[in-house]
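If you are new to this repository, start here. Below is one unmodified record pulled from the training split, so you can see the exact layout before writing a loader.
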Amino acid sequence: MPSSNEIRIIVCIVIGIVFFLCIIIYNNHWNGEDSLFIRTKDSLDQHRRSRHLPVVDQRKQKLLVFMVDGFSHDYVNDQNLVGLQKFMSSGSRVKHVKPIFPSITYPNMFSQVTGLYAENHGVLGNSLIDNKNNKTFDDGPPSNTEDRWFNESTPLWLTAEKEELKSVVYFWPGCYISKDGVQASNYTRYKSFYNVSDEEYKLHYETLIKESFNKLSKENYSLVLLYSEIIDHVSHLVGKPSKEFDSSMKLTDSLIEYLIKTRDEFKMTLDLNIILVSDHGHAFETPKNPFKIHYLSDYLPNYREDLEHFSVNGPSAYLWPKKDKFSKVYANLSSLEIEGKGVKVYVKGMDIPAKYHINHERTGDILLVADPGYSLEPDIAMEFKGERKVGNHGWDPDKEDDMQGIFIANGPAFKKGYVSRKGIRMVDEYNVFCHVLGLTSCHANNGSWDSVSDLLVK
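And here is the target side for that same chain:
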């Protein structure tokens, strides 16, 4: 038997190991990539003090978030974008923003306002399918506006409203939802507005911006969320380099300039923080390297009869085979992977990579994921209503760098002329929004405070 001294030594070693593990768990809680933060007022203030961040009353600061669909991280190098260059020179930005998977619009826009991965907020695509109840939701103009599609988490504007900060939300997915009797003070559902002239588009958005500033300065609003899709639309259909792409960039740059000008006119430089973000970037095919498109109909000639539902998002697809057709569907699609055709085939609950963070009841029974340069469509007749996509997104951001987006902030809460050497993740943005607005009840999330804290003034 061990002596009493030996027992004491063993006990001390065990206590030391437990203590060491506790430290690791604590650090992972605050700094880990997939950790959940609990943002109570006391814990957030204490965390700010430990990181030498200001613990101030942010109630006087307001926030306007301008979400530019499809704005890639490398577009910031375009010196012809005068408004953007001016905005960046007096603000802070990160190297790039890694979108969640899939790198498409609705999942990432909802991650921006919740700080959550798709498996935690439930928005897994631009089209959503509840196979169990045979219900579907399609993006724009909504055919189904039930709150159920977006109420698994609480978006930023509802948290602000609960703390008596008024919000106006333009075109964000789920902007209309009500939760616990709380709703955005003002909202406008998404409606496509790209089939107009550049002048009409510009006038429309300048009107929205002016309306937003009136609400911020005269109607005691604190939060504005505004979305623009023109760059993404042109990137899909025309690509770059092209006259149309250059025009969409110039138009967007004029709106950034108008934001700066309007903030000055309303004398809100000490009150208002403006943040430019995007949901993803874009990759483009070239005559020498066109996208290699796989059609489901080539592998499942009767896919409409074999599948209960399907949702194709370019480089990825969710499929729900009928129960008696699962083996057939899986076997036919497996040839895409076995024959090295640039597509991985996964089965829900078995081998979907954890890093995708799509473990949710709305996830398809089969997941197809295309490699960069490859894409998916149901059949040739449905390929974007007959118009080929020369620019696209949706790929795994770890494999396709062009999926990276932007985060550029300008206002009293941020350093001037600062460029962070590191990138952040889409889920990190939420913590910045909460900090700027001084919110004390932001929910637990997948973001990292340390990833964004260097952007803020000390």
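Two things worth knowing about this chain: Residues 175 and 314 are 25 Å apart (CA to CA). The chain has three domains: 1-31, 58-123+136-285+405-455, 292-389.
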